[in-house]
Design goal:
The complex is a heterodimer of chains A (261) and B (252). Chain A is α/β, with parallel strands linked by helices. Chain A folds into 2 domains: 143 residues, 3-Layer(aba) Sandwich (Rossmann fold); 74 residues, no CATH class. Chain A has 8 helices and 10 strands. In chain A, the strands form 2 sheets. Chain A has a 6-stranded mixed sheet, sandwiched between helices. Chain A has a 4-stranded antiparallel sheet with strand order 2-1-4-5, with helices on one face. Chain A is globular and about 50 Å long. The relative contact order of chain A is 0.18. The two termini of chain B are 18 Å apart. Chain B has 2 domains: 32 residues; 212 residues, MetI-like (MetI-like fold). Chain B has 252 residues and is mainly alpha-helical. Helix content of chain B is 81%, strand content 0%. Chain B is built from 10 helices and no strands. Chain B is globular, with a radius of gyration of 22 Å. The chains are: A alpha/beta (261), B mainly alpha (252). At the A-B interface, strand 6 and helix 2 of A face helix 7 and helix 8 of B.
Amino acid sequence: MSLRDVGFEYVTSDRRVIRALEGVSIDIPRGTTVAFVGPSGCGKSTLLKLIAGLLTTTRGSVVVDGRAVVGPLKHVGMAFQNPVLLPWRTVLDNLLLPLEIMRENGDPRTPNRVAGRDRALALLRTVGLDGAEHRQPRELSGGMRQRVSLCRALIHEPALLLLDEPFAALDAFTREEMWELHQALGLDRAFTGVLVTHDLREAVFLAETIYVMATDPGRIAHVHPVTFPVPRTLGELYGPAGTELIRQMRDEIRPRREASA
Amino acid sequence: MSRANVRRLALPLLVFVGLLLVWEAAVPALRIQPIILPPPSGVATAIVETAGPIAFHARHTLVTTLIGFGAAVGLGLLLGFAIGASVTVNDALYPLLVGFNSIPKAAVVPLLVMWFGIGAVPAVLTAFLLAFFPVAVNVAVGLATLESELRDVLRALGASRWQIFRKVGVPRTMPLFFASLKVAVSSAFVGSVISETVASNAGIGYLMAVAASDFNTRLAFGGLFVLAAMGVLLYGVFAIVERRVTGWAYAE
């Protein structure tokens, strides 16, 4: 996947032109995970929507698998800070929703009903929610709901997984568990991951490349490859190399914030 | 029946019976003429004595209300879906709806009588006019407040607008829709009785208007009690339906 000189502008209700993104050019090799970090308003989430085709670039182009993205991609997994489960469906039926849509749309990649169900149950087992398939979302804790949301993003085995602050609403310990879980899910699946986050540790733990973004206009200011081998451990993350990388990125983000404040 | 349910039914019932007793005692004690305010026992006697006609008129009112209500639910759903699904339709119609809804519907009854004559048709139409607004607004709100993240999750799977509407929009609107039914059925009931009082030859509203013009205060009050009972019953039925159908929307 590659982004070439991508820009996105929009006009606010009081007719100001906002340059949300400008001159973003990056390549994301298949099967790797990249993270975008930066202050609020740097266009991280916009970038994610441009990649998914939910928004259309006003400049430049997004190319996925050799084809320019012009409308919503049809086989992407997404998860957000808000798990947005359907409260009238059980956990299992929430997970099966993507497969239902694929089946209705005649997607040849759709597994049959039994295989789909097995896949859902296997995913729930991986995230430690075995036995929860018939529960209602409202009976689950925030961390459990987020795990279900992550499973829903993976059930159709997407080649591209887009995560927008997926763990931001969780407490610190649950969040670390989710990082390890996410890493485990990534090890036996070959998706390309794009993670948008405020949490620098999260980016270091999960991404192979981190893009530090700056605001006004939203753009990429720094690039950091993360060289720890995968699978990573929390010990490495909080070790000297991890801490040093986090400190460096914080310094890159901080002065800009103070200057603009 | 659980203790909580017994309490929920018994307490208001106790207060109601208490009020009736106070009323019963107050009429002779304050020397109120029964023609001005009959005691509850007198009202009860009137209801029993006139049970046949009351049943006939009550059925008429019920049927009128339900026809108007049914039409209101149908149109309210359609209009609500249109307004909730399309920003253009919303911008075009919503202000008109609000304006229309602020007309006191009793003022429309004379026009309806002029067009359709005295009888059930104006009553059905008044019931309809009062009832469709809450349905349309609730359905529209349910659709329009769909979380943008959920929409993104589905669009990224290649879901069409129609699929999003069907799989997510409609089910998540159901609690609001069923909540609106109990409001709408009460409104429809008010509408049909208003119209019956002004221009009809059947229905409890008509019965009360006739009783009042005969200075039959006992029967007029009897009509009032029957209306109250019917109103509570209609509301109750739809409140129970709401709980049954969309229980997921309520926290345990």
